[in-house]
Amino acid sequence: MNKPVSKSADRGRLARWLISGPPLFYLLLFFAIPSLIMVFASVRYAGDYGGLAPVFDEAGKLNLTLENFQRFTSDFIYTAIFLKSLMYAVITTCCCLLMAYPLALLIARSPKKYRDLLILLVILPFWSNFLIRVYAWMIILGPQSGLTQAVNYVLGLVGIEPVRLLFTAFSVIVGLVYVHLPFMVLPLYANLEKHDPALVDAAQDLGASAWQRFWRITFPLSLPGVYAGAALVFIPALGIFAVSDILGGTGSDMIGNVIKQQFLETRDWPFGSVLSIVLTVAALIAAGIAVLVARPRRETHG
Amino acid sequence: MAKLNAVRRPLGLWLVALFVYAFLYVPLIIVVVYSFNDSQLNAEWVGFTLDWYRKLFNDDEMLRAAGNSLMIALVASAVSTLLGTMAGFAMHRYKLKLLPLLVLTPIAIPEILVGVSLLIFFVMLNITLGLVSITLAHIAFCIGFVAIVVRSRLSGMDESLTEAARDCGATPMQAFRLVTLPLIMPGVVAGALMAFTLSIDDFVITFFTAGANASTLPLQIYSMIKIAVTPEVNAVSTLLMGLTLLLIIIASKLAPNALRSS
């Protein structure tokens, strides 16, 4: 079965192309090229009936502009909405971390046979439809719900006016935390599960208190998991529009809502593309930071 | 907070964990319970009824949307499973740069960006927005998920099995078909079920690529929530949850580790 080397090398290259070519071609066509077209759309004029104006005007001159970017930087409304989205995403990330960390720690320190079940219980709700999970909070936070009435009863006892829970910044944050929580639990668990329990035991033998064992051993070692979870929550939370659309009242719009409006209602695609590019850049910066800080450092023990 | 690392007395941890589990499940349970509630309002329990389900099955628009969702999910999961398996195999086998980047970025960036860029793309190419454009878009975002599941299955596989087949005189194609493929099959099936679920559940990308005339189940749910909330939404939500749960159980039986390691 001795074949000339060059022939089998050719064959290897052919096989490689046959296998990787089709998915590569599909993703280039339906992901990479559309993304590039969006960048190109941001420097064009909006068409008279929505969409995009022709690239060349009647005189055959190139019809491109940076006006759309100037509009973003000069109109404070859009920067304010963008900053508000950043704030919502940061608060969401922090809340998710505070809720997910104890849970992930508990699961990681449970007997092995229960771990799979406990983690499956975290993933399961995440597999039900995203809109349903957001909608469920409309019921819970609605004006007639038991929760709202209980809260207002307690507030009434201490003489505070009744509050509204639904269609507020509060309900938007609750919804954002709810839909993103599993993204924080999973990487944290994956990290905490790998910790060597001997390290904590050793610290205890050396007289470290529970608090010290956590802050000086467990938490520093779990930082890569924290960064990964933070990126997985922060990035999608930044671009989301359905949560603020359904649970937010007037003034709760996030950058995703404005992008949606520009594409489907105002039909100003070039400006919508500018906002999308700003969002992409913010997401890439967040991902870049997460990758940089989470880069594994040299082992410090041993 | 001091209780966080109480290895031997994790009572504080248990309380927080119970609270988080309740936070995760109470909303879904409420939706299911109210789908059987004999009241127009999602507020107090009046009595048991199946009327909302009856109403649902007489809702032509809803049934058409469900049919569309099913058809899109079947085609999208079939094509993305094929392409995703190829991508996963190629990423495992060869040192590639562009393909892993293209597989992973659609998963890593906000969904809305994929949606709006495809909207511009389809309109520019004069592709009518509707079932076809939705399906093409779904395939694009499902490929990555399938590829990751298949690749993780391949990296857990004993490479010497394929080598043994080659030593016994199998051609590369035979080795793949008779040894590698059966071994990674659970991963492929899990990937397919995952793609199916992702497709049938997707709202954001569908929202931008659907146009005015095609509707899917999530789009229908969205417009119901936006216009007037009736317990009919609870009923359709409950059915959809049941379907998803079923698929997840099948997937986890077929490939216990595939879903977790992604």
UniProtKB/TrEMBL annotation, chain A:
<keyword id="KW-1133">Transmembrane helix</keyword>
<keyword id="KW-0472">Membrane</keyword>
<dbReference type="InterPro" id="IPR000515">
    <property type="entry name" value="MetI-like"/>
</dbReference>
<comment type="similarity">
    <text>Belongs to the binding-protein-dependent transport system permease family. CysTW subfamily.</text>
</comment>
<protein>
    <submittedName>
        <fullName>Spermidine Putrescine ABC transporter permease component PotB</fullName>
    </submittedName>
</protein>
<keyword id="KW-0812">Transmembrane</keyword>
<feature type="transmembrane region" description="Helical">
    <location>
        <begin position="269"/>
        <end position="294"/>
    </location>
</feature>
<dbReference type="GO" id="GO:0005886">
    <property type="term" value="C:plasma membrane"/>
</dbReference>
<keyword id="KW-0813">Transport</keyword>
<feature type="transmembrane region" description="Helical">
    <location>
        <begin position="165"/>
        <end position="189"/>
    </location>
</feature>
<feature type="transmembrane region" description="Helical">
    <location>
        <begin position="117"/>
        <end position="140"/>
    </location>
</feature>
<dbReference type="InterPro" id="IPR035906">
    <property type="entry name" value="MetI-like_sf"/>
</dbReference>
<keyword id="KW-1003">Cell membrane</keyword>
<feature type="transmembrane region" description="Helical">
    <location>
        <begin position="226"/>
        <end position="249"/>
    </location>
</feature>
<dbReference type="GO" id="GO:0055085">
    <property type="term" value="P:transmembrane transport"/>
</dbReference>
<feature type="transmembrane region" description="Helical">
    <location>
        <begin position="21"/>
        <end position="43"/>
    </location>
</feature>
<feature type="domain" description="ABC transmembrane type-1">
    <location>
        <begin position="82"/>
        <end position="290"/>
    </location>
</feature>
<dbReference type="Pfam" id="PF00528">
    <property type="entry name" value="BPD_transp_1"/>
</dbReference>
<feature type="transmembrane region" description="Helical">
    <location>
        <begin position="76"/>
        <end position="105"/>
    </location>
</feature>
Automatic annotation (TrEMBL), chain B:
<feature type="transmembrane region" description="Helical">
    <location>
        <begin position="12"/>
        <end position="36"/>
    </location>
</feature>
<dbReference type="InterPro" id="IPR035906">
    <property type="entry name" value="MetI-like_sf"/>
</dbReference>
<keyword id="KW-0812">Transmembrane</keyword>
<dbReference type="InterPro" id="IPR000515">
    <property type="entry name" value="MetI-like"/>
</dbReference>
<feature type="transmembrane region" description="Helical">
    <location>
        <begin position="131"/>
        <end position="154"/>
    </location>
</feature>
<keyword id="KW-0813">Transport</keyword>
<keyword id="KW-1133">Transmembrane helix</keyword>
<dbReference type="Pfam" id="PF00528">
    <property type="entry name" value="BPD_transp_1"/>
</dbReference>
<feature type="transmembrane region" description="Helical">
    <location>
        <begin position="175"/>
        <end position="197"/>
    </location>
</feature>
<dbReference type="InterPro" id="IPR051789">
    <property type="entry name" value="Bact_Polyamine_Transport"/>
</dbReference>
<feature type="transmembrane region" description="Helical">
    <location>
        <begin position="233"/>
        <end position="255"/>
    </location>
</feature>
<feature type="transmembrane region" description="Helical">
    <location>
        <begin position="70"/>
        <end position="89"/>
    </location>
</feature>
<keyword id="KW-0472">Membrane</keyword>
<keyword id="KW-1003">Cell membrane</keyword>
<comment type="similarity">
    <text>Belongs to the binding-protein-dependent transport system permease family. CysTW subfamily.</text>
</comment>
<protein>
    <submittedName>
        <fullName>Spermidine Putrescine ABC transporter permease component potC</fullName>
    </submittedName>
</protein>
<feature type="domain" description="ABC transmembrane type-1">
    <location>
        <begin position="66"/>
        <end position="251"/>
    </location>
</feature>
<feature type="transmembrane region" description="Helical">
    <location>
        <begin position="101"/>
        <end position="125"/>
    </location>
</feature>
<dbReference type="GO" id="GO:0005886">
    <property type="term" value="C:plasma membrane"/>
</dbReference>
<feature type="transmembrane region" description="Helical">
    <location>
        <begin position="203"/>
        <end position="221"/>
    </location>
</feature>
<dbReference type="GO" id="GO:0055085">
    <property type="term" value="P:transmembrane transport"/>
</dbReference>
